[in-house]
Amino acid sequence: MSLPASKRKRPAGALCLAALMAASAAAASAAEGGKLHALILTGITDLPYHNWRETAPHLRSKLEATGRFDVKVEEEVRGITARTLEHYHALVLHYNGPRWGVETERAVEEFIRSGRGMIAVHGVSYGTFYGQVFDNGWKRPPDGDKGWPAYAEMMGATWEVEKIGHGLRHAFPVKWVDREHPISRGLPETFLANDELYHRMDLSPNAHVLATAFSSVESKGTGKDEPIVWAVPFGKGRVVHITLGHDLTAMSQEGFIAAFTRGTEWAASGAVTLPASR
């Protein structure tokens, strides 16, 4: 008895062709102003912070409130395949847990390389994807594991375990340093964040910084401007990285919401149609 089409395993070439066709269809739909389909990748974590059960629904609600997105949430990412992702325009990476396995990680890579996009929020800036292990703080693994090979390229940044950190949480202004990018165009020059201000990250040469914040010595920071929002190409696709978003309070700030929703639209379609003000 033959398996139904939905259960048959397609050869690698067919999967690549299907991914390219899906990317073309996704781009056409986005260009026509139709709904953009976003998938939030979240779930399992053993860490005592970053309560995804609260924040993932919040992110979903903010995207859906724009009227531009149809959003689904995946709480068990391990095991999803390229076929799972065919329908989507953008991924929202909101995760800090165990690795997903080679097939799933390659599916995410190819999703972006084919011309679609991803927005990465806060806690994705370090962890197991970089080959780091948590043992009363993030440390290098004893086995020398380097993590997900393509991850740093996708994120446009690395963060050595010796540098991971931030000053005291506080309210601080974030400045759009590129005001002509589609994500920031028309927005006020600055917005207020109430969050952790990540510092000492190492950005890739092709990472295009859109917004920065001054990390004051008084708040136990670096005394320097630190990158907060940046964009990076990956294959034919786009990734936006936002270091903000520690918890529900941080994600409820108007500036964060604007950066997140507009950043997701740009990652999905390469353009922003959302108004700069409500």
Characterize the structure shown.
The protein is of the alpha/beta class. The chain has one domain (7-269): Rossmann fold. The protein contains 7 helices and 13 strands. It has helices spanning 12-31, 52-65, 82-85, 102-113, 151-155, 248-251, 254-269; strands spanning 36-41, 69-74, 90-93, 117-121, 133-134, 138-139, 157-158, 170-176, 190-195, 202-203, 208-215, 224-234, 237-242. It has a 9-stranded mixed sheet with strand order 2-1-3-4-13-12-11-8-9, sandwiched between helices. The protein has a two-stranded antiparallel ribbon with strand order 5-6. The longest helix is centred in the N-terminal third of the chain and has 20 residues, at 12-31. The radius of gyration is 18 Å and the shape is globular.
Descriptive terms for the model:
single chain; 278 residues; alpha/beta; Rossmann fold; two-stranded antiparallel sheet; 7 helices; 24% strand; globular; disordered N terminus
